[in-house]
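User: I'll paste a sequence; please echo it back and then give the predicted structure.

Assistant: Echoing your sequence first, then the prediction.
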Amino acid sequence: MADSRVFVSIPTTSVSASRAFFTTLGFTFDEALSGESSVCLQLNEQTFFMLVERELFISFSYSGRTADIAGAPAAQFSYSVDSREAVDAAIETAVAAGGTEAGEAEDHGAMFTRSFLDLDGHLWAPTWVDPAPTSGEAPVEQGATA
């Protein structure tokens, strides 16, 4: 496969509000793939989220409708951060920008995650994973910083 980029499209009620929310969280956008009815949030070099105006999203959803995710998200979008503190900071920033914390923190020693709902009710989970298990290094002790 020559191009392994991933594009995930999700509906939003306000492209401008979503752009502002995710900009506050430190995300950037690919302006070449953004417009009035959608913006392209760039998670990393290979992963992009198209935040698409709900009506436009419905027009290419094949069913002519979209799920009502209020209170019951259909998916969770996890993304990696550099430390446990970065997980906490992401949640604090999301809540300050109008998001809602979802659930309790999950601490599995080599993995730490928390979740938030964005302005449209989509579930996001900033996650820290100890790089040691895959690199051959000694694991970071639970509660220690990376």
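The chain is about 25% helix and 35% strand. The mean pLDDT is 88.
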